[in-house]
Amino acid sequence: MLLKQRLYSGAGNTFVVELLSSNLPLPTAEGAQALCAEHKVDGYLGLEKKADHQYQWHFYNRDGSAAEFCGNAARCAQAYLNQSENIIEAHHETRAGKIKTWTESGSHWVLMPEVKIISEKHTIDLEGQVFVGLWCDTGVPHFVTNQRSYRFDFWKQISQKLRSHPSLEQRGANVTWVGPAVHGRPLQALTYERGVEDFTQACGTGALAAAVFLQSKWPNEKIFRINMPGGSLEVKNQDSSWIMTGAVDKLADI
Fold first, then answer.
1. SS3 label, residue 102
2. What is the pLDDT along the chain (254 residues), one digit of tens a residue?
3. Is 136 one of the annotated active-site residues of the chain?
4. Which CATH number is correct for 5-112+248-253, 3.40.50.720, 3.10.310.10, 2.40.110.10, 3.30.420.40?
5. Of these residues, 36, 70, 76, 136, which one is catalytic?
6. Active-site residue among 36, 76, 136, 203?
7. Is-catalytic flag, 203?
8. With contact defined as beta carbons under 8 Å apart, do 18 and 46 qualify?
9. Which residues contact 105 (CB under 8 A, 6 or more apart)?
10. What is the pTM of this model?
């Protein structure tokens, strides 16, 4: 079988995905960074097969930094495995722990890592502006707060400073902004991601973080459709766990 690198989009969040060959060296941070730059994508995911339907992740952000997890990359990985190997369900070992992906009725799903609430009302004083939000870990750390009316360039500068604020400890955090939330209306969110160092078209762990943030407002809600610039992600609270799906598109074989 010819193993291929492929470009995938998970609601606009883009990746190089490949099934690694057992007789070749594992990918390096430098190699992943070069691939991301060449193909102008957000991240790289190499899947190392350990057993039938079981894979070890080698995942890197655009800047070559190793990321703990990525929800959209997980769905893209499942699409890759389903389309190239006809795999319906797979299990993955990531830096955030073990996760499961599966394909059902044409949609690619991921069982997200266990959510860890670090602080429900974390306060950051940034040069006299006070931001209060949810600090949580949904596979990667997120600081989630309400959107404010900024010019986009200023909004980006604020996010750059928040993501590495000393109160968020050494790892820092992705910054997820949640728009005005009215029950029954579309829910908006936007994430500034570490390692990409910019806003992305979509962020799976950010959509989950937004859903957890909104569930404190609506505790009986079980399904959240989070609209991000690249598309909509559906996040469900099911049996005390969170699962997620959304659009996945194969862009090209490399």
1. strand
2. 446 899 999 999 999 999 998 888 999 999 999 999 999 999 999 999 999 999 999 999 999 999 999 999 999 999 999 999 999 999 999 999 999 999 999 999 999 999 999 999 999 999 899 999 999 999 999 999 998 877 878 889 999 999 999 999 999 999 999 998 776 667 899 999 999 999 999 999 999 999 999 998 899 999 999 999 999 999 999 988 999 999 999 999 98
3. no
4. 3.10.310.10
5. 70
6. 203
7. yes
8. yes
9. none
10. 0.94
